[in-house]
Amino acid sequence: MAGDKPHAACNYRTGARLDSVKAHECYHCGKWIARGEAHDCWTTTEAALTQDLSQDLKEAWERVRETAAEFGEQRIYASHNSIMFSRKSCYFFVRPRKQFLEVCVFLGRAVRGPHVRRVDRSSKTKLAHLIRITHRDEVEPPITDWLREAYELQDVLASAVPKKKSTRTRK
């Protein structure tokens, strides 16, 4: 039996049978779950992700959310450790941390600024900008301008898609 994979009803970290223990550790989130207790660490809410933030960070989060909501129709939802803002695709997301809000904005160009920690290419047309926000007063231009630019980028990219050329050859 040594080296065998644990049974489906076993904890993958410890190999303990889940039906014989009073609690088990979730493989994904590391929390201890009592036997019979419902647990779904993959789905979460904005409130759950922001409940432990300091007052300054909560105010900053509220300002980020309000600013983005004013842009127009979009979907705002929580996904694992982040709060996503999307139209057809995600144009930015926020990861609430203990000391700051980590905002990842997808733009069509590289930008520089004191809050921009890192810029990574995320696709052929987009660059991901990691921004740290620690206070409500930081949610102002140029950060709000970058959020709006990211929101409007989908319209720009959709209009810039070249028409498919005809593959038909003339004789």
Mind explaining what this structure looks like?
It is a single chain. The chain is α+β, with helices and mostly antiparallel strands. It has two domains: 13-42, no CATH class; 46-159, Yope Regulator, Chain: A (2-Layer Sandwich). It contains three helices and eight strands, in the order E-E-H-H-E-E-E-E-E-E-H. Strands 3-4-5-6-8-7 form a six-stranded antiparallel β-sheet. Strands 1-2 form a two-stranded antiparallel sheet. Strand 3 (75-79) and strand 4 form a beta hairpin. The protein is globular, with a radius of gyration of 22 Å. Residues 1-12 have low confidence and may be disordered.
Keywords:
6-stranded antiparallel sheet; 171 residues; alpha+beta; two-stranded antiparallel ribbon; 8 strands; Yope Regulator, Chain: A
